[in-house]
């Protein structure tokens, strides 16, 4: 049984690549439809720092901080849009075990470092999870330009403003949780990627071209318990 949780997401990069919807659909579980923007599906790599992670109702001081990295896309079920995670890499073996067991999310233990530099935020991740496909990421990102709140219907809103995630349990059943947060405040961002094998680890070819990138200082999040889709 999962518990509602609270957390804060900080210093996020949204690095987004447009791809053929059929490529994404082939990797989704039954029951989920690909969401598109101007006819294209999107794959996003999102590194960030997850802070104050705790059961909802406990004070933030009771939480833990875990740097994370995910590969995700955008889907819907019966018209209800959300995010689908292909993988989530995180520091903290106990947190990874709990997320896999109680929230049915595809978490993998990894060695991750996030640090501020004179060139921006340096983020490195190397998966260490026993039996999992190897996956590494190394890059540096920084915000550029003015901050903005995404307009409804814009590409930035499509890529960031989601309030549900979907996942599948080990028995193949579709599950979901609803999340709540203030609207994102974003800035355009640049990224220099040295290594990224997340796509290959999840059965994708590396998308062509440069990603569309946004940075956010973060938001505070609450999440419902993970429930089976009935």
Automatic annotation (TrEMBL):
Organism: Natrinema hispanicum
Full protein name: DUF2071 domain-containing protein
Signal peptide range: none
Pfam families, A to Z: DUF2071
